[in-house]
Write a structure and sequence with these properties.
The protein folds into 4 domains: about 80 residues, conserved putative lor/sdh protein from methanococcus maripaludis s2 fold (Beta Barrel), CATH 2.40.420; about 100 residues, Efflux pump adaptor protein, beta barrel domain (Elongation Factor Tu (Ef-tu), domain 3, Beta Barrel); about 80 residues, RNA polymerase II/Efflux pump adaptor protein, barrel-sandwich hybrid domain (OB fold (Dihydrolipoamide Acetyltransferase, E2P), Beta Barrel); about 70 residues. The strands form 3 sheets. It has a 6-stranded antiparallel barrel. Strands 3-10-8-5 form a 4-stranded antiparallel beta sheet, with no helix packed on it. The chain has a 4-stranded antiparallel beta sheet with strand order 7-6-4-9, with no helix packed on it. About 25% of the residues lie in helices and about 35% in strands. The protein is of the alpha+beta class. A hairpin with a 3-residue loop joins strand 18 and strand 19. Helix 2 packs antiparallel against helix 3. The longest helix is centred in the first third of the chain and has 33 residues. It is built from 3 helices and 20 strands.
Length: about 375
Amino acid sequence: MPFRVTGLFRWLVSMLAIVAAIGGLVVFRASSRDENVGEVGRPHFMTISQEIVAAGVVEPREEVAVKPQISGILATSEVKPGDYVRKGDLIGTVQVVPSLAALNEAQSALRMERLRARDMSQRLARASGLMREKAFTQSELDRVATEYALARESVLARSREIEVLRRGASAGQKYKPNRIESTVEGTVLLVPVKVGSSVTQANNFSEGTTIALVANLADMVFRGTVDESEVDRLRLGMSAQIRLAARPGQEIDGTITSVGARREQDVSSRDLTRAARFEVEARIEGAPEAFGRSGYSANAHITAASRENVLALNEIFVDFDEEGRSWVDVRVAPARYERRRVRLGLSDGINVEVEAGLDPQTVVRKPVPER
């Protein structure tokens, strides 16, 4: 019997020791869990900037569409994308396709004018003969001579009209509407039509065919969009850092010059599944070199607010209650924390300004989920 009691006692002692060891290990790990890297931290001084990012493109401020002055067939094209042209340089020529009705009408009018001119020539000859016989006054002769001159001029005008209908221009004419000339100086960005294509002139009912798109690549702007939740924070004159996707690491200074007063036109105002976006434009200041191309994808980083040398805390240590109040677990003793309310300020999405409730020596931990 004594042997049995002694053995049972030893077994109980062993089990208690094992349980105590396991409990101590659990307590130790629980008390030291918050000491792991990333589990605890301290507030620190830094500069916090709140940015608005606008996605868009870098393109010329103005792009000019060069259009023909007459309709017809594009006979020649003298430029290609990337060429530099000056005002008045030849872009191409148009071959006129005459209207048969207009041509027949002009030819009929020419025949009538020739008959009229022949009649006036005969009348002038008779008047000159009568003048020599003193049977015609000088004023009447001058009147017949004037009518004959007008008839000859009408014949020439009808002849030039037929030539214009056939060729687009008449011989000796300084202005030739069949020539397509650049109206501005710049780089050719696009030549959308090929030789042999039909082209039309601009009129009240049509914008006309664009033969070439010309722009000054030394005068570039950023055009993009921002979300409706951020557009009210934008102001004209704000600085922006423009970063090109094609040139990593390069930043170009810009200044906001325009903020759209209406949402994007390509989004239906009845589409409630998407947030509205508004256009924003920034002037590029002192680009290090000419871009050489139009349409680079870019993001404009606009500083909406900034705080320098303020006490800040990583937002992973901040907990918010249902009423929007902010709380932090602060260490008051080894392995002992208490929940403390803090007042926060500006946030950049990673770090947040601490206005009250903490100091640089305070140790905080990540919020522990309630069980």
